[in-house]
Amino acid sequence: MVSEKNHNVSRRQFLTYTLTGVGGFMAAGMILPMARFAIDPVLQSAGAGDMNAVADVSELTEEPQRFDFSYEQVDGWYTSEVTETAWIYQEGDNITALSPTCTHLGCTVNWNSNESYQNQFFCPCHGGRFEKNGTNVPGTPPTEPLHKYEIEVRDGTVYLGKANPQI
Question: pLDDT at residue 48 above 60?
Fold first, then answer.
C-alpha cells in the first residue's frame, strides 16, 4: 500500500517560490537580449576577403596610376563607406597594386612627386622613398616595402582585396 504524505505549502514557501520564479524570468528577460547584442557580431561572417572592382585592365599602363575605390565596411553594428587608394601598373601580364601608405609613419606616398627622385614613390613627411615595385630605398626612413594588394582579374576588370606586407 502506498502511503500518501500530506504536502502542505506554507504561505512563506509559496511567496518564496513565486518571487524566485518571477525574478528569474525578469533576469532572463534582461540578460538574454544583452548577451545576444554582445555575441551577434562575432557570429556574423567576416567580409575581409571581399574583392572590390577598381579599374579596367585597358586603363593600366607601365607607369603607376592612382585609383580610388570605395566599399562598405561593417564594424559590429556600424556600417560605413570606406574610400581607399591604390597605385596600379602593368608590366607585361603582371599587374601590381601598391598601397599608398608609407610604412614609416603612415603618410601618403605619391609617384614621381619629387623632381630630385624621378620614377620613385616619395613620402613628403620624412623623405621616405620607394622603388616602382614598392621596395624601400636603403638609407631612407621606411624599414619595409609598401604593402601589396591581393589582385584578381575577371572579365577585363581588376579587383583588389586586402593590402598585405611584402615581407
Answer: no
CA-wise closest residue to 118 among 166, 63, 43, 75: 63
Q: How far apart are CA 59 and CA 62, in angstroms?
A: 10
How many domains in the chain? 1
Look-up of cell digits 528569474: 24
Cβ(52)–Cβ(159) below 8 Å: yes
The model's pLDDT over 20-31, given as tens digits with 9 standing for 90+, comes to 999 999 999 999
Q: What is the CA radius of gyration of the chain?
A: 30
Find, among 58, 44, 65, 47, the residue nearest to 161 by Cα. 47
User: Is residue 119 pLDDT above 90, yes or no?
Assistant: no
Query: What digits encode the pLDDT tens for the residues 78-88?
Result: 888 888 899 99
Residue 60 lies in a domain: yes
Phi, psi of 83 (to 5 degrees): -115, 130
pTM metric for this prediction: 0.67
pLDDT(46) > 60 = no
Question: What domain range includes position 83?
Answer: 52-164
H helix or E strand, kind and range, residue 80: strand 78-91
Residue 118 belongs to domain with CATH number: 2.102.10.10
